[in-house]
Amino acid sequence: MFKRQIIKELNKWRNNTSHLPLVVRGARQVGKTTVINNFGMEFDNFISLNMERPEERSIVESGLPLQEMLPLLFLRKGIRRKNGDTLLFIDEIQNSPYAVSKLRYLHEDMPELFIITAGSLLENLVDMNLSFPVGRVGYLPVRPCSFCEFLSATQGEDKVELLSQYRHTVHFHDELMAFFNQYCIVGGMPEVVQHFADHRDMLAVDGIYSRLLRGYIDDAEKYAKTKKMTETVRLLMRYGWYHAGSVITLGNFAGSEYKSKEVAEGFRLLEKAMLLELVYPSTSARLPALPEHRRMPKLFWLDTGMLNYVTKVRQEIINANDLLDIWKGRIGEQIVAQELLNLNNDINQTRSFWTKGRGDGGAEVDLTWVVDSQLVPIEVKTGHNSHLRSLHSFMDASPISIAVRVWSGPFSVDDVVTTVGRKPFKLVNLPFYLIGELELIVRENC
Length: 446
Prior knowledge:
Helices cover 41% and strands 17% of the residues. It is an alpha/beta fold.
């Protein structure tokens, strides 16, 4: 079943006595509405509203006290109210700035009522100087399906259970890597995953991706404030995919004539839509590792399936012996970065990578991740341990003694000594299909 972790978080929210109104965030078509509708079936009363429908929006914006509004909502939806808990779901709430501004008051008027909202580009309401209830609501991100969810949908729960027994995956390595390659091609958009699970045809999802891409472009352009920003967004949505997993320069991006400020504004809009993230480097190998926003960022998109559709590299993945042979390894880095975001449900979670300070050479570690207050380096590379020079540089500067190399080989742990500082550390060789178990594996091997 998709989004099991999200359902778990929703149940935790329901059992919390305060249950502040919950804002579910995520790009369009990542399954927000579906998962909330399924969750709503567990309540005695469930009212689902869509603020794109004028007749439903007019009741919410009527200004009536919630105690008077609620019976009208039951009447509008043709639902007979029962005794017990009631969940009010307000979808596409960005279409009603009034509803956004009144969220805190809805909860104060009827604290026993459960309220969930969902929508896209909600941060733009802040830019419009509306009374967004900061600090009075909770947030929950919904992202594309993880590999575990893909595996569950396409192969069943037995294969998912195997991943938690990570030391035994070596006996099923080739099979699991084949499934992961499928995931790289198909991606994690729920509609696409379900279509593939039903039909087992990787190319039959093109129509879905075409529709999704057009919807993303239309959505982003809707909130572009100027003609110049609209043109910039079109450029990024057309050519930005080709720079996934790369360190990028904002000025004259993709050979354009747009200035750094214009490109940055376009990227910020797409970040608000949760379509991508600009990931900035840190020069610190220990916490706190603050991102350096004056340096060039890496670009990661929300979903590798969409990326493969736009860039037309799917056939390369089908024919490849190793994900790291494709597109100079950038597909591998993109999918690792994508999987990392599914390790927790923190709406503020960002990714980072490490570089040496200016003048200290060109060392760069692909990604870093915090596990139990430890900044863990992650290299997405194959090859001999002694060739991981950047990782060795990081470990010489780090107080920890464990590092991760994601690759297409089976799981193993090596005892390694850095080439310069002669510092011993454990190198966890993590196959792509075990990224979802990264935090557990780091804890058990520290």
